[in-house]
Structure formats: structure tokens, C-alpha cells
Amino acid sequence: MKKFKFKKAKILLTLPVALISLKLYLGAVLGYFFAKILAGRIDSTIFNIGNYQIHLHHWIMGVIGLAVVLLIGFSPLTRHLLCGFSGGLVFEGVANYPDWYKIIIKKKEEALL
Predict the structure, then answer these.
(1) Helix/strand/coil for 99
(2) 97 to each of 6, 11, 75, 92, how far by Cα in Å?
(3) pLDDT tens for residues 12-31?
């Protein structure tokens, strides 16, 4: 009988972890498909500064969003969903674009004239 109680207690202790994981997973799936659906429909954010272009990829915005979520005190449900959502944005941007690492780009000489 004691073994049964131990297993039952062990299962009950894993429920919060499973719920947190589920919220993170659902947020990540939503973030990934949100970015996938909007890709190409919304223009990229590019700033021209002198001879350079600064490209704010959506994965960078996801990292900024993740930092904001972690710094601001959201409720646990909201925090886990938003962290997962931001993670999904970051994953989609890094996994699907070969130029994800190109943030600062020097303009070509022809384009300057």
C-alpha cells in the first residue's frame, strides 16, 4: 500500500511540470505557425544608416519579446505561453532562412550612386 501512495505522489508531483511544458509547447507551436503564415506578407524591418542596412529579422524581435516577458511580471500561464510563442518565432526565423545571421549589411557601391 505504501508503494502505491509513493507512485501516486510521484505522479502528482509531475503534473505541474507537464502543464508548464504543455503551455510552452502550445506557445511555441502558435509562434512558429504565426511567423510561418505571416512570412512574406509583412515587409521586413530594415533601417538604412549611412552605407549600411540594419535588418531586424523577426527572430530578433522574438528574442526582444522573450526578454520583455522575462523582465515583466506576467502571470505564470501568460508567461509560459508568451515564452513559448517567442521561442517559436525565433525557431522559425533561424530554421527556415539561410540569411538569418545577416543583421548588418554593407550596401553595394552600385546602389549608393
Answers:
(1) coil
(2) 48, 41, 33, 8
(3) 777 777 777 888 889 999 99
The model's confidence at residue 113, banded by pLDDT at 50, 70 and 90, is: very low
In the block, cell 544608416 appears at: 49
Neighbours of 36 (CB within 10 A): 13
Nearest-5° angle of CA 82, CA 25, CA 45?
Answer: 45
Phi/psi of residue 104, nearest 5 degrees: -105, 120
Tell me the pTM.
Answer: 0.74
Nearest Cα neighbor of 65 from 41, 48, 46, 89 is: 89
Question: Could you tell me whether strands 52-56 and 104-106 are parallel, antiparallel, or unpaired per DSSP bridges?
Answer: antiparallel
Asked if 105 and 44 touch (Cβ cutoff 8 Å), the reply is: no
Sheet of 45-49: strand order equals: 45-49, 52-56, 104-106
Asked if 93 contacts 38 with a C-beta cutoff of 8 angstroms, the reply is no
Query: What whole-number distance in Å separates Cα of residue 77 and Cα of residue 112?
Result: 49
DSSP bridge pairs for 52: 49, 106
Confidence (pLDDT) at 112: 46
